[in-house]
Design goal:
Elements: H1 2-17, H2 27-51, H3 57-72, H4 79-103, H5 109-136
Helix pairs in contact: 2-3, 2-4, 3-4, 4-5
């Protein structure tokens, strides 16, 4: 089962970068970018506040759950933004899991590693598509 899941993941990742990608920058794409940017900001703010002791772990966990729901509820048309939509919710949830583990005095590094790995994948696909998306009017620099 793990082998099948891994093969499916690699096929999805490879398929998203193979061949000519036809980008778009329609209303739903711009809405997605706005939602994604707001959620990144909120999770980052609560995470920083938690690490500085000015927010509770529950605040950061709730922000990460809300971010996952908000991103899942969006509907970008652009294939790169669809890839971001695919990876962002688990990225946010892994971050929340890391905060929960850290707050419980447990090792949060595996969950944080997964969150950063997913974040890296998102950053890679956005960086690759940035010139074409920018040319169409979708500025992704604020979410990189």
């Amino acid at each position: 089962m793990l082998l099948i899941s891994t093969a499916a993941f690699l096929g999805f990742a490879r398929g998203s970068s193979a061949g000519a990608v036809h980008h778009s920058c329609g209303l739903t794409d711009r809405q997605f970018l706005t939602v994604y940017e707001l959620q990144l900001t909120a999770v980052g703010m609560y995470g920083t506040d938690y690490m500085n002791g000015s927010a509770k772990a529950q605040d950061a966990i709730a922000a990460s759950k809300q971010a996952a729901v908000a991103v899942k509820g969006s509907a970008p048309f652009d294939p790169t933004l669809q890839t971001v939509k695919h990876f962002a919710p688990p990225m946010f949830l892994e971050f929340g899991r890391a905060v929960k583990l850290r707050a419980a005095g447990k090792d949060a590094s595996p969950a944080m590693y997964r969150a950063y790995s997913l974040s890296s994948r998102v950053r890679d696909v956005l960086t690759d598509a940035e010139p074409k998306l920018n040319a169409l009017g979708c500025n992704v620099s604020d979410v990189l």
